[in-house]
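Handout, section B. The chain below has 320 residues.
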Amino acid sequence: MTLDNSTIIGILSEYPLNTITATNPFTKGAVQTNILIETSEGKYVLRYYRARPPKVVPTELELLEHLSKKGIPCQEPLITKDGKDHLLIAQHVAAVFKYIEGDHIPPDKLTNSQLKQIASLLAKIHNETISFKPKGYEQREIHDRPYIDSQLGIAKKAAKKEKYDNSKSIELITSTLDSIQVSKTLPYGMIHGDYDMANILFKKGKIGGIIDFDDSSYEPLLFDIADLLKNYCFRSQKSFNLNRARFLLDEYQKIRELNQTEKKSLYDIFLYRYCLFSTWTLAYAPPDKSGLQNGLTSMMRRLPLFSNIPREEFYKAMFS
């Protein structure tokens, strides 16, 4: 369903907002429908969860409410006039959030001070979400090996339908997954699930807030830490920056120290998460005219930059 203006106004009338002066849809990062709402008293975001079953969204909203109360700068849901944190519109959830001002900064433009803030914020989030189980958390997607295998099946079907070859990428992902093990004793909690520059906003050199908990789930906290390294430590297509990875981990551990199982597992978890994101690209990114899928080539080139680092060398570089 597309939200027309009358529907938008109807949703907003349920909230204690002052005069609405403008509504403008966001055009980037649009898995869900996001609309900027400008009022006489400030800005808000209306999110319509068109790609999420209604039963799983309240878990995310409860997580955001929990983090907001703990002082984490995230998008706190507004409460309706009837005391609810969401509405059900045409079989999908709609919610309004406070708007966070700020800009995205690419990894190669970040200062050490900003990198420190990024790592520290993740540790603070984990301190508040470890073992935290909001209502309905068990209904969120769990990104285990069977899940990845199911997504690889979707990728194979997509390639067959559109007549392009992704078999080498699937073989690389499968062989990488077969070579690793995920410990069952890692600390669990509600993770962000997409700890990336696109979801961290800076204002005047400081983090203004973190957004988009749409992929949050109850899984090993180490998943987020692996994403932190994946998203901030590659030097383009040239190498994996071990020094930056160590810096980020040191800053994280000043707030939340990793246990020995987490330290020993980080190498495998990094490869695991990299394979997960590569699989999503395989399954859902449309191929270009040459038959290549957007972003997949660079992802496949980067994977060996990390996997060619010996496991013990990585461990010593990070934790010695």
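Note. The CA atoms of residues 5 and 80 lie 19 Å apart. Compare this with the example in section A.
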